[in-house]
Amino acid sequence: ASLDAFAIRGRRQRNEQTSDDGYAIPRVNSIRRDAYVRMGLGDADRGGWAQVLLGGQSFTRERIDDPKVFPIDTIEEKRSRNQLVGAVGWSGDVLRASVTSRTYAGEDGFQSLTGRLSLAHRIAGVSALGEWRGDDSSSLGEVSVRLSPFSFLSFSSVASLRRPPSDLQANDLVSARAEAALRIRSLWFTGGVVRLDSIHVTPLVVFDSLYVAHDEGPTMALYGGVRGRVWRAIHADVFAFRWERQGFYRPQLQLRSEIYVRTRWLKKFPSGQFGALISVRHDYRDGIAFPTDEGPEVARSSHDLSSLIEIRLVDAVLFWRQRYTLGQLPNEFIPGFTVPRQLTLYGVRWDFWN
Fold it and tell me: If exposure means fewest CB atoms within 10 Å of the residue's CB, which of 112, 290, 308, 344 is most exposed?
């Protein structure tokens, strides 16, 4: 048997954000709390097991006495939600199965029931997932298959069916993904395709009340990447994702390229209590269109260059991150809201136990 608990409290403050045309996102001063208590029986990796978890989350937006912000931000607001989760299952060398019940409390609470079943081997594996929500009778079914005939070659695919609530006149949503991966020495080359039956995006009215919802028909995207060790401690991570056509609320092309050096310098520090990470990364995004009743607004494409230095000493990590905007104009992910051309983040993080 095992028993553990966790709690975290975070405070966030943000100044008022104003776009080029004068539209403002109000100032925020908020506190978020997350906590849970869990009790478990058995080993989740071997034989039968059971777990019960009671968790809670609360969000408080504190009062701000500032006549310049919107009236909603002059009122203290607190929201919270608790949930009870119970799960039982069996884990073996090949077969894994589990059933999970999740209950959310409150006026808008609901209960869901999820079942998982998987058969896994070094060469191949198959898994299935089914979820049902009792409040609106919606359901989700998903099946995935993996095939690894050789240590340097693997294939995988996933297909899912989401059934909307019975009181809505809506079609079932089908999505699928297929991927292949090939290892050449220490580098993995991956490529795949994603297909969605339809997409529904709610409007981002917090940035502009003129934005409207968007529904899109079947669409497809291609993606690919390279990841792994290039030479000694030098590694690379390159990934690209491209939709077949320009859509609203998303860039058509995204590209991430990173080269980094990761070492523990074991010849000088055989205890493993030292580590270093030096990274340079470039991010690119196409322009993003935001629909309104009067026509689309477009946020221009963006180029970011960032660097990261991390030094680990025993359990403490010192880090320094810099982000720069490339080009003559500052980046904007939302039309009219520009991003600072340079951002610096530094500090220390550490692990401790008793």
Answer: 344
